[in-house]
Write a structure and sequence with these properties.
722 residues; Rossmann fold; alpha/beta; 19 strands; 30 helices; nine-stranded mixed sheet; four-stranded parallel sheet
């Protein structure tokens, strides 16, 4: 029978479809497919080019006042001083004494200067590392300035990043190609790559490439490692006469330059604003979703492994309920544990710095407080590298790496082959702890280590014990930060729920309505169920009521029902509504932001960086990083400068050894931007009756006049100078 019905409905549907086709798509006069595809509306609907794209390509960013004339000159700024690392002085002697150079308009240039400035040049440019919105405008600005000085000059792009330099893979950048990518996101024009020119062989091949092409200058657009490469390339090719200029690129915002006295020379790398705005728009949408569907906590991990600049900007842009700032966690001090140790006459060094367990409690506190006022939903923003700021995690990494390396050296057997299963590894650590205690020496793996490690989810234990890279380093990029944190949060919320401490607040009016509809007296039932019945608009179920059994017992004891009676339906409805279900949605924001189109701020910033690059080259500079000073101010105050790279470099551990690298900048906890976010934490948590305090930043808009003109962190930090 079911089969016959199925056939009947299939036949009926087929007839209906045919009738629709006969009525709306008659055979006679139907357009030919080829004709249809040539229709203007079809062409417009399927074209790669839209109005926004055309407007972007046509936009010409304004130039800083320094570029108002035909020529520019460089003016040394000896007032800016740097603390120079001795290894930098030894390894980069040719460029270590470079000074900050201000780019100035030069309207009255002499004949000799003009001849040198306008000489025919061959310049190479390479993108290095991950994409960042605005990179194409660096090329556009450089190309325009170069062509303005001498139309016979040539610009070459190295294909697929530094590999293009090493392997001499190059493409000439023509006006037609440059125009195609003006104001557009990505590094699509010449692609990018992550290869580092960090060996003598790679350096030699790079030098040969520049010689064979007859380059006068090489421009390296990249982050800290890439600008480090630029410094060493500048030193290597100093005698060849090949100038090397770096450009600060990273969406993480961790390239910021101050001199020894704290004077700001570069307040933000390009791409940061665009990525932060892209992330903020998406996270703002989740804020709207959370407050509409009221059943999810959206866990948003944003890029930023070493620094939390993006998370800080997103907090300002969206007013997410909870935003973790890694640098703040590293600065945490547990005063309770310090006081307890002081009573015993000892010092608890582990009280300095946030622990994973305590961090999960902090998050839970916000979740529980919001639930108490009926908001069992919200948005949590986590920087990608937050775990790197947790002392115990760093301690685990150091200790476990040492244990694994020591085992391999002592036994001449691979640790992971000897103990392939997680339980075998954990058993080895337990034995190691016992042996250390018996020997009476300073144990590398003590009882506290073992206890803390036991609190960590199994998948993270496995991650911390995983095989190190070829240099013996822990592979942090493989860690699922949000999964780890939320696993601990979920576990603790379950404990709080069992203790009756995690409840959803019931609106007083709703409670009264349900009771009345069920034929019950709210005034009689309310004091029995709720601990705060005489207080505000939201009612919190008593701690002692955490199951149907305890609910029944409470009602019986109060004389509301008899032992053999069931819980009234109206009361059961309120009880179920008060019992929270913790549901999460996890999101990662990284590649989408770095691949977005640049904001107008980044379009203007990067175009002027390109103009600055040419000014540095035309005036004979090398080993400098192009930058724009006063980014935190309005455009009319922007000043192009060249910053010496070598004095910015410091020794850091990379790949198991100390290497000179450009120092990264983290969030300063005394900055105005952080202090403002810290001050608004309680308000943005919104753990009180009433609406949330979400901010709607809107999408990146290239048209119109409503686009903000700079990152909010820069706007706020500029107030420190007023």
């Amino acid at each position: 029978m079911a089969t016959q019905q199925h056939r009947y409905f299939r036949l009926r549907n087929a007839c209906n479809i045919q009738k629709f086709r006969d009525k709306h798509m008659p055979a006679k006069g139907s357009p030919n497919l080829e004709t249809l595809l040539q229709h203007p509306d079809v062409k417009q609907a399927t074209s790669n080019i839209n109005t926004e794209l055309r407007e972007r390509r046509a936009f010409i960013p304004p130039a800083c006042d320094a570029f108002a004339g035909r020529y520019t000159r460089l003016e040394a700024c000896p007032d800016y001083q740097f603390e120079i690392d001795q290894d930098a002085r030894r390894q980069l002697p040719g460029i270590i004494h470079n000074q900050v150079q201000a780019v100035k308009c030069y309207p009255a240039a002499d004949e000799k200067f003009v001849e040198a400035y306008q000489s025919k040049r061959k310049i190479g440019v390479v993108f290095s590392g991950g994409p960042a919105p605005g990179g194409h405008n660096v090329i556009a600005g450089l190309f325009d300035a170069m062509q303005k000085a001498n139309p016979a000059s040539s610009l070459y792009g190295f294909w697929l990043g530094p590999d293009g330099i090493i392997e001499n893979e190059v493409v000439e950048l023509t006006a037609e190609l440059v125009d195609e990518y003006r104001n557009l996101g990505g590094f699509t024009m010449i692609k990018t790559g992550r290869t580092k020119i960090d060996t003598a062989e790679k350096m030699s091949l790079s030098r040969e490439t520049c010689k064979s092409l007859g380059l006068d200058a090489l421009v390296v657009v990249g982050g800290d490692d890439s600008n480090t490469n630029a410094a060493f390339l500048a030193q290597e090719m100093l005698d060849d006469g090949v100038q090397v200029i770096g450009v600060p690129k990273t969406i993480d915002g961790d390239i910021q330059v101050r001199d020894a006295n704290g004077a700001v020379l570069c307040s933000m790398s390009f791409g940061f604003h665009s990525a932060a705005r892209g992330f903020a728009q998406n996270i703002s949408n989740l804020c709207t979703d959370a407050s509409s569907d009221i059943k999810y906590w959206h866990i948003c991990k944003v890029m930023g492994r070493v620094a939390s600049h993006l998370a800080l900007e997103v907090a300002l842009q969206t007013h997410a309920n909870i935003t973790l700032i890694g640098e703040d966690l590293a600065d945490y001090v547990d005063k309770r544990r310090i006081a307890a140790a002081a009573k015993e006459g000892t010092i608890d060094y582990t009280a300095y710095g946030m622990t994973l367990r305590h961090l999960s409690r902090v998050i839970c506190d916000g979740i529980v407080r919001r639930a108490a006022v009926g908001k069992n939903y919200g948005v949590l923003v986590i920087p990608e590298g937050v775990l790197e700021f947790i002392n115990e995690i760093q301690t685990f990494i150091i200790k476990l790496s040492t244990i694994i390396a020591d085992y391999n050296d002592t036994h001449d057997i691979d640790f992971h082959k000897t103990f392939p299963a997680l339980e075998e590894k954990l058993e080895y650590l337990r034995r190691l702890q016992q042996l250390s205690g018996e020997n009476g020496g300073l144990p590398i793996w003590n009882a506290r280590d073992n206890d803390l490690f036991s609190d960590i989810p199994e998948f993270f234990q496995e991650g911390l014990l995983t095989e190190r890279d070829s240099h013996g380093n822990f592979q942090f990029s493989l860690v699922q930060t949000d999964k780890i944190l939320m696993g601990l949060v979920r576990d603790y919320l379950d404990i709080l729920k069992e203790k009756g401490l995690y409840k959803v607040g019931i609106e007083r009016k709703y409670f009264a309505k349900v009771m009345t509809a069920g034929g019950l007296d709210p005034a009689r039932i309310g004091p029995v169920l709720f601990s705060d019945y005489q207080d505000g608009p939201y009612l919190l179920m008593k701690k002692s009521i955490f199951s149907i059994k305890t609910l029944t017992q409470t009602l019986v004891k109060a004389g509301i029902i008899k032992a053999e009676d069931g819980v009234p339906a109206a009361v059961m409805k309120i009880y179920i509504k008060s019992m929270p279900k913790f549901k999460t949605q996890r999101h990662f924001y990284g590649y989408d932001g770095r691949g977005s189109h640049p904001t107008r701020f980044d379009c203007n910033y990067t175009y002027n960086l390109g103009l600055t690059v040419f000014s540095l080259i035309a005036n004979g500079a090398t080993g400098q990083m192009a930058a724009i000073k006063n980014l935190e101010k309005e455009f009319s105050h922007w000043e192009p400068v060249g910053i010496p790279i070598a004095p910015l470099m410091r020794l850091e551990e990379r790949k198991g050894k100390l290497s000179l690298v450009l120092e990264k900048s983290v969030v300063e906890l005394d900055s105005v931007a952080f202090q403002v976010v810290k001050s608004f934490r309680e308000q943005w948590l919104a753990a009180e009756p009433g609406a949330d305090n979400y901010r709607r930043p809107g999408p990146i808009r290239f048209t119109g006049n409503s686009e903000e003109d700079r990152p909010l962190t820069l706007v706020l930090n500029a107030l420190a100078d007023e």
